[in-house]
Design brief:
By secondary structure, the chain is an alpha/beta fold. The chain is 29% helix and 28% strand. The strands form three sheets. A six-stranded parallel β-sheet has the order 1-4-7-10-13-16, with helices on one face.
Length: 175
Amino acid sequence: MRLTRYRVRLPLVVHFAFALALVLLLGNSAFADDSHDRTQAGRSITIAPDEQAGDVTCFGCSVRVRGHVTGDVTSFGGGVILEDQAQVDGDLTSFGGNVRLDQGVKVRGDVTVFGGRIRRDPGASIGGSISNMGGMGWLLLLLIVLLPFMVLGGLVALVIWLIRRLTRPSVPAPA
């Protein structure tokens, strides 16, 4: 009796998604030190009115600041809300999310938004420049950045496929 082994091949996208999830999950522990930096993936970050934080970075989530951030605030795939006399000493950047600045908030650096909108109260103070790349323009930028990696990944997949095809043992056809 001969046992047949079946090999399940997952698409390259599944491998990439798994690797990205692993990096994001393990990446949180890499940032865990004695500093006041806050980094999260998939869970929103809230800085309370009596709280102070260093750099605040969020992947796939939103940031709400009511306290004081001594560094930068960055959000990938989520929005940023500054309210209740919040202060950010560095820059505020949002990729794929909106930014809301309520009355009395202060941002000492620049405010940059890709793929979202800025809603700013006239009483909000921004020390640097304001850049907003809303609409479909950010997709073009994302495509330009990701296209070389997609081509490289396709070439690697092609080379792996060719090597497997050439090294596969030939099985005679049944008569």
